[in-house]
Amino acid sequence: MRKIISFMHISLDGFVAGPNGEMDWIKVDEEIFDYVGKRISEGDTALYGRVTYQMMENYWPTAADKPAATKHDIEHSKWYKKVRKVVVSKTMKDAGLTNTNIISDNLSDRINEIKQQAGEDILLFGSPTATHSLIQQNLIDGYWLFVNPVILGRGIPLFADIKDKIKLNLLTTRQFTCGVTELNYVLDRQ
């Protein structure tokens, strides 16, 4: 069965964005882009909440065409165009969307159907609201976190309204030159 892995930049104190959705504190560089690019290039399905999807859709389809496009822009744009996209949203409609499906109801059933299909792990990018919904329904199988060396003090937390303890097993960790630390966890389902 396919797994849903939440891919998220996070502050040391557990926030994924500032109080108004700010992400200007996130550190990224070529080392991180290359590392992440290798891993996601193997993925065939990206899962987003509506806000993150719209942000991605406004940038990535044409990112490679810009005169100052970086290696990362070109590679990620190519991947984004071919990857299957699934969006959790109660307001979006999927009419006319290319390679994109919308889940607006029966979240658990619809996600479990996707997990049963052949393919690679499903990467959940950002999307704190969608992530909170998936956590509540025990649908996330792992967390691929990039801990940034910053304490925000307030903002949008990764983990909110957790009802039951979630036990995790650490698979890998990596320190990047810019100070970001990768933590790769899977759920301990025992």
UniProtKB/TrEMBL annotation:
Coiled coil: none
Record InterPro entries: DHFR-like_dom_sf (IPR024072), RibDG_C (IPR002734), Riboflavin_Biosynth_HTPR (IPR050765)
Transmembrane segments: none
Bacterial bifunctional deaminase-reductase C-terminal domain segment(s): 2-180
Source superkingdom: Bacteria
PANTHER family documented for this protein: 2,5-DIAMINO-6-RIBOSYLAMINO-4(3H)-PYRIMIDINONE 5'-PHOSPHATE REDUCTASE, DIHYDROFOLATE REDUCTASE FAMILY PROTEIN (AFU_ORTHOLOGUE AFUA_8G06820)
Protein name: Dihydrofolate reductase family protein
Originating organism: Rhodocytophaga rosea
Lineage: Bacteria, Pseudomonadati, Bacteroidota, Cytophagia, Cytophagales
